[in-house]
Amino acid sequence: MADRTALTETETGGKADRAVVRDALGVGVAVGLSGFAFGVTSAGSGLTLMQTCALSLLVFTGASQFALVGALAAGGGPFTAAAGAFFLGVRNAFYGLRLSQLLALPRAVRPFAAQWVIDETAAVALAQPTRRAARLGFVVTGLSLYVLWNLTTLLGALGAGAIGDTGAWGLDAAGPAVFLALLAPMLKTGTERAVAGLAVLLGLGLLPVLPAGVPVLMAALAAPVVLWADGRRKGRGIEG
């Protein structure tokens, strides 16, 4: 009886692991294709093949990379472009704080894992019910996305002239679309949905008036604002 129970638990665990790997690979492949768009955009902004590939290998934060080359393509100076990319990448530090507690990786592994702390790996890891599943999702998403993103960056930079307008392919929208698809099921309460909605309004509303990357940071103010308003509402309910 005990052997049968152990076998059932093993089979259940195996199915759960396969589901996590399947979802993580789906995210890695879908978002990794956006590397084509980055390679083309970077080459079009005047960066060399080596510079373009170095950005993907060493920086590996898609939105920040697009912000950098987009600012350069628009005629911005290198320091201004780098500042915008830096501000946009700051959000990964907040992901890291949460993931460090969830994953609890060995100290020697953390510097290498930090390279993969991005929107997609955070979303996949945080969506898992157990630490084991979170670790598996983080590693599979990070590895598949890192490899594919760098490969497609190289191909996009090499074939920039032949690919043409990346907007016509829609590759630049793949990353945000997948991230939103992962985030939506996690918004289960009214407070969480209110935070997400206000964050969207702040980010889009401030986009035309603030430098690249800053609207994303300002959108983080949605959480304390909604929590404060919710606390006041509940306080009035108790008093009434």
TrEMBL record:
Q: Which InterPro entries match?
A: Brnchd-chn_aa_trnsp_permease
Taking the first listed entry, what is the main subcellular location of this protein, grouped into a coarse class?
Answer: membrane
Stretches of the chain forming a coiled coil according to its record = none
Q: Does the keyword Acetylation apply?
A: no
Membrane is among the record's keywords: yes
Bilayer topology annotation = Multi-pass membrane protein
Q: Which residues cross the membrane?
A: 24-41, 136-163, 169-187, 194-227
Keywords of the record, alphabetical order, are: Cell membrane, Membrane, Transmembrane, Transmembrane helix, Transport
**Localization annotation:** Cell membrane
Q: Which Pfam families match?
A: AzlC (PF03591)
Q: Which domain of life is it from?
A: Bacteria
Family membership noted in the UniProt record: Belongs to the AzlC family.
Name of the molecule in the record: AzlC family ABC transporter permease
| Organism from which the protein derives | Streptomyces coeruleorubidus
